[in-house]
Amino acid sequence: MAKNYYEELGVSRDATADEIKKAYRKLARKYHPDISKETDAEAKMQAINVAYDTLSDSTKKAEYDQMLDHPQGFSNAGQGQHSGFDGSQFYRQSSGDGADFSGFEDLFGRFGSGFGGGQQRSQRQQRSYRGEDQHASIQVDVDIAYHGATQQITLQIPTYNVYGEPEVQRKTLEVKIPKGMKEGQQIRLNGQGQTGINGGENGDLYIEIQYKDTDRIRVEGADVYQTIDVSPWEAGLGQSIELSTPAGQLKVNLPKNAKNGQQLRLKDKGIPNKTAGQLYLIINIVLPPAHSEQEQQAYQQFADAFAAFKPRAS
User: Fold this and answer.
1) DSSP state of 296
2) For position 34, which CATH number holds?
3) What domain of life does the UniProt record list for this protein's source (predicted)?
């Protein structure tokens, strides 16, 4: 007795679309004529393609379910039974070139060029497919955002081998990172994505730029945050200080009575994008240690001068 389409794919009638696709992929990897050692691989592949083509289409699936529930309504002169139904009215045909294995293309169009078109199929049935775009992320120093750089990077990119099995591909590329890249922006490398099938063009590789955070510097979009150390007298008196920043050497006037954790904004000193970011200086007041007698006396004089100051006053 011939199997119905659900039995052909090994799924129940209440299987979800994802479960149907997963079952089809598993069988396609097993029976594809280019790689299968099964004697009936070609016929089996044809059968599961027909089944998947119907069950993956919601409209055709609904019609097929209706036929299964009411086989007498689909019989030929009252003779047909659903177990012997060949499903030809549900199976999409191409314009004169035979069956259009849409489900098969959806699966193997994402794999490597090893599934380009087996010797089992005629030349007229082969089609070209563009390789998938791929994505990767790299971390670079924030200085590159201000000056740009060309770097050689090695990426480990997930892909599929010719047997449809996931694997990691190592790829070494020379990447030009332009000045002004914001955190999270992407560089597109044409043709460096997954290989095309049957002469189709390769996909593109998109590299997302992330900047390395340090204990002093972090990046958010085009804005840069830098922690700076200042002495109590520089903070209290509002003195002018010189700093080394990603934007270069800068002279900054501190506000009088600056507080620990206070942020100073330097306009347009962040990443020099089309819309320049801001550089935020976060004040960290550092107390000098009092080792010598002279240093301890200085602290005592300081305490005497601020006798009214109560740091733990409620």
Assistant:
1) H
2) 1.10.287.110
3) Bacteria
